[in-house]
Specification:
binds beta-D-glucopyranose; Nucleotidyltransferase, domain 5; five-stranded mixed beta sheet; globular; 16 strands; alpha/beta; 252 residues
Amino acid sequence: MGKKAIGIDIGGTGIKAALVDIKRGELVSERVRVETPAGGEPEDIADACKSIIESLGVSHRNYPVGLCFPAVVKHGYTQSAANVSKRWIGLNADELFDRTLNRHTHVINDADAAGLAEVKFGAGRGSHGLTIMTTLGTGIGTALFYNGVLIPNAELGHIEIEGVDYETKAAYSAMEREGLSFEQWAERLQKYYSALERLLVPDLFIVGGGVSKNHEKFLPLLNLKTPIVPATTKNSAGIIGAASLAYASSED
Ligand code: BGC
């Protein structure tokens, strides 16, 4: 049967899931997507995850389930809530998902999950020193890795530049909302990555999120000292990272 786990990537607009081959870091089922229930309430999201697992057609097998979520996640508790209901703040998310999905689950921040996938199977494989994974989507997610080891819950999407939480300016959603061209958006990304570079002096930036499939339209416009590369697991990074963490913790 091989080593497999289900990964679920919960976002502000959609929830995506698939069965993942943990050894190769590849999806081995179709990727199912549903809209995030309006309001992003905990019980509604947990129920949506239950139906998404059922629609994967693998629910009868006892696969470990890993979920990733757009919030700080500490010891199974969600401690913030960007683009979902504020009721997630301080919620025992591990317990909610264990109960709703009727099995042991593991919840992690979405950017941390995406970064784990990249460091294990993608553009960050074998990286040394400080690697910063960034995901450009509804918000900006960030994950820090030192010699491949995750330092969890870095919330660097919210650094303040020119007096504003810069996620509101440089996330992909800002580009869409304001109808920016790639050139205009790249000017903001330049400010954002330069600030990270100044503060943290990393060895590598990895850029993920759905828009990274168009990386040739904006990465060449950036002028940085640090190498900056697109994620190779693209839009499935969160699914792969969450699944592989769930598998690893089911073996503990
Ligand atoms: C949240 C992070 C999340 C990122 C990407 C940010 O607004 O604060 O926790 O990783 O969005 O979803």
